[in-house]
Amino acid sequence: MKDYLVKAITKDNNFRVYCVDATALVQEAHLKHDTWVNSTAVLGRTLIGTLLISTALLKNDDQLTVRLIGDGPVGGVVADGNSKGTVKGYINNPHVSLDSNAQGKIDVAAALGTKGSLTVTKDQGLKEPFTGQVGLVSGEIAEDFTYYMAKSEQTPSAIGLSVFVQPEESVEAAGGFLVQTLPDADEDAITNLEAKLKDMPLVSKSLREGKTPEQIIFDLFDEDNVKVLETMDVEFKCDCTKDRFKDALASIDKKDLQEIIDADQGAEAVCKFCGKKYQFTTDELKELV
Ligand SMILES: [Zn+2]
Question: 56: pLDDT confidence band, cut at 50, 70 and 90?
Answer without folding.
Answer: very high
